[in-house]
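From the thread on structure requests for the teaching lab: each student submitted one protein with a one-line request. Submission from student K.M.:

"Model Cell division protein FtsI/penicillin-binding protein 2 from Humibacillus xanthopallidus, tokens only."
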Amino acid sequence: MTTAHRGGTYGVPMSGPHRTRRARSTVAAALGGVLVLGIGAGCSLFEQAPPPEDAAKALATGLAKADLSGVTFSGSTKPAAATAFVAKAYKDLGTLRPEVTVTSVKANDAKDAATATLQTRWDVSASPTDWTYSTTVPMRLVDNVWQVAWSPAVVAPQLTADETLAMKRTWPRRADIVDANGAKLMTEREVAVIGIDKSKVSGAAAASSAKQLAGLVGIDPGRYAAKVSAAGSKAFVEAITLRSDDPVLEKQGAAIDAVKGALTVPALKVLGPTRTFAAPILGSVGEATAEQVKDSGGVLQAGDDVGQSGLEYRYDEQLRGTPGLSMRAVKHGADGSVIDQRELFAEVSTEGEPLKVSLDSRAQTAAEAALAKQTARPTALVVVKVSTGEVLAAAVGPGAKGSTLALAGKAAPGSTFKIVSSLALVRKGATAETKLPCTETLTVNGRRFSNYTTYPKDKLGDIPMQTALAYSCNTAFISQHEKVSQDDLTSAAQSLGMGEKLDLPFTGFLGSVPATDDVVEHAASFIGQGKVEASPLTMALVVASVMKGQTVRPSLVAGAPALPAPATPLDPKEAEVLRQEMRAVVDEGSGTVLKPVGVEFAKTGTAEFGTKSPPDTHTWMVAGKGDLAIAAYNEVGDNGVTGSAPFILSFLKAYTPS
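Reply posted by the TA:
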């Protein structure tokens, strides 16, 4: 095929007066030959070369999809080989892919060479900052096809043939949860991770070592041995994580080291001051579950530590901050190990924000010590600061097995609810001296109610409401069921901080006094039974409200939005009547046991539950002293004096507000 040349045609004279006709004839003949050849060869002299932009766009699309099959490369590079390199380069990035666009294409004067400039953007995090860079790619027009000059640097700046891309995320140190005085509650503490290293022991020997190690650290030998057997041949299989000062390490350390394949790895883990310290409230931190990773929308990855329960879970995003990251070019050895790496892009992490809570470490420690021996059944003790509503302590005994009983338990409050019933009666015109009929028994719609078996005989008859509360006469309060409606009880409860569903900034339960049309159920509500429920936190707030003379709302998390006031606020004059009654409980009634520790206000309570005959009873004791309102709960006991009051006595002997 004859090729056109700028300024003429190769082999054709271009000047001379006698050659004009001959030249034209020659050109015509030549063109005729070209046309014939063109028809026969299937090409045309006037066929235009494709624009280089198309090849540049194909390259950009291929890089974004890790598929370069639609690109023609110069030299010996095949599209399949280039695609394989890009796939390998992106492999460690998971599903992350770049956005690649063509910003310019500049061709040379001869239109047979061009340079494409590509802009690459990686959306590496939720932040507005992305990893961006430009690359320039030479292209040549060969046989009417634009060929791209291949180089690993087309993928990322200065990338070499033996490098791949990797992104490393680095979380900042998790922020602490601190107490009212700024002391660290949940913070990184030294631990020892103990387990079997299967690269040092295998097969039946590994299973044997696992059982031996399990026996030393106190976990199930069979279950741990099965876990070790199921793990990979080079896996480290954790058995237990112990605090660095755990007695097991001191007692069994040498024996653990002697187990074949056993390994003790020092580490840092977010923990409370002790294993039990406010554990149900503060919560725990651990590796994100598969579900948490999935639900995070790409924020979390396998291996990330996140809050798993309690405040650590609820305020996880605040406490964990945001991770820093770096994109790296990584060089691997023949065995796949990293032998070199360099940073291509970095984004700095953002520190989390500490969470301050109202817990007083001394109060919490004293509360937990008061319950330390209660292993047989669930127990709880809550202490609220009257002036502010701050929760100073919320402890559960060992028998509660780490439950949220203290702040979110649900149980019938028994006769401690008579504080609420008294307020409802005050709102109907009663005073502390108003006489109520205290009889041995009282039947309501066929249901027989009675007082506790040791109720003093000399306190029967028409007695002041103050005496009825002090000695806890059931029939005296139930006798008012026709005068005081269930709505009246509900309203009185809400005025004392009980029974409303509020959006608490922690896991808690403020009690429930449900509506009812059942006469018997309504009568039972007067003595805190029927369907009335409360948590130890609830009853501590009731006492605090009485002491303060206005509704007290709980406060645990600093900076949390204020909770709304009840529809019917507590009147200070109403509260004074209740304080008078609760003083009588301490002076002459069931609360005299608390006099030695300076308690000013109190009320006992028992509530029957279950199907036994006679039924089991929950026991309660609530108390007020100075700026402290306290509620003690025992799931099963004889009465509040013997079943719950000892917890308050122990606490107040150990704790004095600073």
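TA comment: The two ends are 103 Å apart (CA to CA). The domain at 177-321 is CATH 3.90.1310 (Penicillin-binding protein 2a (Domain 2)).
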